[in-house]
What does this fold into?
Amino acid sequence: MLSVKDHWDKVYNTKAPDQVSWYRPHLETSLALIERVAGDRSASLIDVGGGESTLVDDLLARGYQNITILDVSQTAIDIARKRLGLGAKQIHWLVADITEAQFEPGAYDLWHDRAVFHFLTAAEHRAAYVRQVARAVKLGGHVIVSTFGPEGPTKCSGLEVVRYDSEALHDQFGARFRLIESSKELHHTPFGTTQQFLYCCCKME
Ligand SMILES: C[S@@+](CC[C@H](N)C(=O)[O-])C[C@H]1O[C@@H](n2cnc3c(N)ncnc32)[C@H](O)[C@@H]1O
It folds into this structure.
């Protein structure tokens, strides 16, 4: 079995950016939520498992000045960097496994994750992730996590996932994370199929 890093490097070495099921030209739901809860363009944002997504391009275009993109795959980060050209210099890039990355306490106003947490099938990895969020996000900051919903697929990219409804996802995080909104999205894959995603947005208290 490949390591997490090798799995994702292989995916990004062998598939075009728009030929993966999670691809969408723009992450509209994420963008709308981010602008609503962290509208100040100097807010420090981290996109965890950003992959090759265009969220970073869209955040830069909207004037955000303090963006960090983390991914376990160096290949994905290299591709996103190249696509951004000069804009890449304005971004903090981190190659790390989210369960092990080193963060300063209260480093971020906003944490965003689309389609990463659901790959953590081991309870100890989920607990490590939650500890990371609790350390890295400021009190009063926001956490947006999007996973497959209860009717979403059971696998993605050949890996098992855990599907969540809003209550089950919020339970993973606990009372310090106040759930302020949740929604479901029917994502249309590039292959003509649909996948149910769940979005939860919490405030750190
Ligand atoms: C399904 S893709 C989603 C990419 C992007 N968030 C999007 O919505 O287009 C999952 C991403 O999470 C990254 N990833 C998976 N496990 C990770 C981990 N433990 N730590 C950091 N990144 C991880 C993968 O490399 C991949 O880019």
